[in-house]
Structures are given as C-alpha cells and as structure tokens.
Amino acid sequence: MALAVGAAVVLPGTAAAQAAAGGGTGAEQTTAQLRPMGNCSIGGHICGNVYNRDNRYTLMITNDWGKHGNSSTWRTLKPGQNGHHVGVKDVDGYWVGPGCKAKRSLGMRTVGPGWHKVRDGQKIQIVDIRC
C-alpha cells in the first residue's frame, strides 16, 4: 500500500508498532509498488543490505542515508526479509526503536536505539531485537 501525503508512520519498537500483531507498521509497500533505489559503489555492483532474521519484530530500513529522516525513504522488513524483498537494491541504514536493542550476527554486536548506517558492501544480519 502506498502512503498518503501526511500519513502517520509508526516506527518499529514503539508501542503502536508492537500492538499490530503481525501486521507490520503500516508503512509496508509491496515490491511491485517500489522501484529499486540507492547508489551502490563500483558501477552499481557493491551495495548494502540488511536481513531481518529476528522472528518477532519488523525492522525499518532506509534507501537514502542522506534523507533517512524522511519517511518516503523507509521500508519495513518483516521477519525473514531483506532489502531486496521490499524493492530496495541498496540499503543505507536501519532503525532500532526507542527502548530496543538489536543484535547483529557478525561478532554478535548489539546496537541501541536510533538510525545505524549501512555502508556499500555490508550485509548486516539482525538476529535478535529486544524491546
């Protein structure tokens, strides 16, 4: 579904997002409605991607780090999805909601709330989200 101008978007990790049992955050769009975005390195071949391996929570990503505060760049990954599933060729960042922590598989590093940058060539797997 496309977002209407001025539509409210609920970020993962917020009370409203958690209340939507299995329904996501309302910001989802199908692949058919999205066009791949992002500026990958080396002629468009080295891109960033995020995989949501958590089995409970959705994960918000952005396809434009410079505009990550703009909801038009956000897409929602359901458990088991990555950026390509929602039409994003180059993921530039991901959001961890207030009061939440996300554990990455590489080195089991845990990150706290806020936006986290994804560099070209990074393939980040979020394996656990705790709120």
Describe this structure in words.
- This protein has 131 residues and is mainly β.
- It is 7% helix and 26% strand.
- The strands form two sheets. The protein has a four-stranded mixed β-sheet with strand order 1-8-5-6, with no helix packed on it. It has a four-stranded antiparallel β-sheet with strand order 3-2-4-7, with no helix packed on it.
- The radius of gyration is 14 Å and the shape is globular.
- The chain starts with 14 loop residues before the first helix and ends with a strand.
Classify the oligomer: single chain
How much beta, percentage-wise?
25-35%
pLDDT < 50 runs, ≥5 residues: 1-10, 14-36
Shape by Cα distribution: globular
Q: Report the helical percentage.
A: under 10%
Task: Furnish the topology, listing elements before pairings.
Blueprint: H1 15-19, H2 41-44, E1 49-52, E2 59-62, E3 74-77, E4 93-96, E5 101-104, E6 110-111, E7 114-117, E8 123-130
